[in-house]
Design goal:
The structure holds two protein chains of two kinds. By secondary structure, chain A is an all-beta fold. Chain A is built from no helices and eleven strands. The mean pLDDT of chain A is about 90. By secondary structure, chain B is mostly beta strands. In chain B, a hairpin with a 2-residue loop joins strand 6 (about 55-60) and strand 7. Chains A and B meet through strand 5 and strand 10 of A and strand 4, strand 5 and strand 10 of B.
């Protein structure tokens, strides 16, 4: 299957700082990338859909000014958690989509102190 | 709201047995259906996709789809301890996926 990478895999930061997470499709071009958040023992919740060269589409209840998404190329999307707070601590997972299927990155564990 | 329902489990099966997982969904216009396996602390891994009614087999896995009844299932034959994980059902429409909460499977040696 297709390979999607994420960086960093784990980050610990102080409250109030911003954290950038990168998602790359390594062996295919992804017109669309998705960002999910998963809390412990819960399922994946879609945060936003990112299309190359255009603004991201955010799901209801997700603050676009807090979770900044940039999809500058067909292989790279970034999620920036701005002014992070402890309640933002979660497992953030991106996926990239060739037609019909989504392949997930390995995830980024964010801990905000 | 598009809902995807799964039994949370845990589902405990002996090694070598068949594990049967079920999933129902609410959006009748859903077009694509997936089963993902997720190990603790890891991201989901695609194991099966199915798009039309009937059965689809891939190795020890068989997915079954019934659009009229709005359910999709996954059978794992000859279960192995390495199959112990949480299995997520995902339903796609408009290029988005909606996930169930997952069924935790434990295969006892």
């Amino acid at each position: 299957g297709a390979v999607v990478s994420q960086h960093p895999s784990r980050v610990i930061c102080k409250s109030g700082t911003s954290v950038k997470i990168e998602c790359r499709s390594l062996d295919f071009q992804a017109t669309t990338m998705f960002w999910y958040r998963q809390f412990p023992k819960k399922s994946l919740m879609l945060m936003a859909t990112s299309n190359e060269g255009s603004k991201a589409t955010y799901e209801q209840g997700v603050e676009k000014d807090k979770f900044l998404i940039n999809h500058a190329s067909l292989t790279l999307s970034t999620l920036t958690v701005t002014s992070a707070h402890p309640e933002d601590s979660s497992f953030y997972i991106c996926s990239a989509s060739p037609p019909n299927e989504q392949f997930f990155g390995p995830g980024t564990r964010l801990t905000v102190l | 709201q598009k809902e995807v329902e799964q039994n949370s489990g845990p589902l405990s099966v002996p090694e070598g047995a068949i594990a049967s997982l079920n999933c129902t969904y609410s959006d009748r216009v859903s077009q694509s259906f997936f089963w993902y396996r997720q190990y603790s602390g890891k991201s989901p891994e695609l194991i099966m996709s199915i798009y039309s009614n009937g059965d689809k087999e891939d190795g020890r896995f068989t997915a079954q789809l019934n659009k009229a009844s709005q359910y999709v299932s996954l059978l794992i034959r000859d279960s192995q301890p390495s199959d112990s994980a949480t299995y997520l059902c995902a339903v796609g429409s408009d290029y988005k996926l909606s996930f169930g909460a997952g069924t935790t499977v434990t295969v006892r040696a």
